[in-house]
Amino acid sequence: MFPITTLFSQTYRTVIATSAAVLLSGVMMTGANAADIATTYNNSCAACHDSGALNAIKKGDSAKWQQLIKQKSMPTLIKSVKNGMTQMPAGGLCSGCSDADYRELIEYMSK
Predict the structure, then answer these.
(1) Is residue 12 scored above 60 in pLDDT?
(2) What letters, b where the CB count within 10 A reaches 16 and e where it falls short, cover 85-100?
(3) CA–CA separation, 47 vs 43, rounded Å?
(4) pTM of the model
(5) What's the pLDDT tens digit per position in 50-96?
(6) CB under 8 Å, gap of 24 or more: what pairs does 43-47 form?
(7) What is the pLDDT, as a whole number, of residue 29?
(8) Are 36 and 100 in contact (CB under 8 A)?
(9) Could you say which DSSP state residue 57 is in?
(10) How far apart are CA 101 and CA 59, in angstroms?
(11) How far apart are CA 62 and CA 54, in angstroms?
C-alpha cells in the first residue's frame, strides 16, 4: 500500500500537469486565433468589404469604421451582423462565428 503522502504527491502532480496543459492550450489557441480571423475574413467578409460592394465599408478604412463603431456601439454592430441587414445576410456569411469572432472581425476590418 502507498503511504498517504505518496498518494497526495501523485495527485498533486497530476492536477498541476493538467492545469498547465489547459493553460498552454488556451495560449496556443489565442495565437492561432489571429490567423483564423484573417482566414475567416477572407472566407466570409472579403467578398463585400474588400471592394465596398453593396455600400460595405472597406477593410482598412479606419475613419469610417471608427465613426460607425462610435455611432452605433460595438454590441449593436455585432447584433446587426448576427441578424443581418438589408444588404448583408444574417451572420455576414459566417455561419460558425461567435459574438467574439464578430467583434474581432469588425476590429480586423477597422485597422
Answers:
(1) no
(2) eeebeeebebeebeee
(3) 8
(4) 0.69
(5) 999 999 999 999 999 999 999 999 999 999 999 999 899 999 889 89
(6) 43/93, 43/94, 44/92, 44/93, 44/94, 44/97, 44/105, 45/92, 45/93, 45/94, 45/105, 45/109, 47/93
(7) 36
(8) no
(9) P
(10) 16
(11) 18
Q: How far apart are CA 29 and CA 68, in angstroms?
A: 30
Set of cell numbers at residue 46? 472579403
Amino acid 94 reads C
56 three-state secondary structure: coil
- Report the 10 Å Cβ neighbour count for 101: 18
48: left (phi over 0), alpha (psi -120 to 50) or beta: alpha
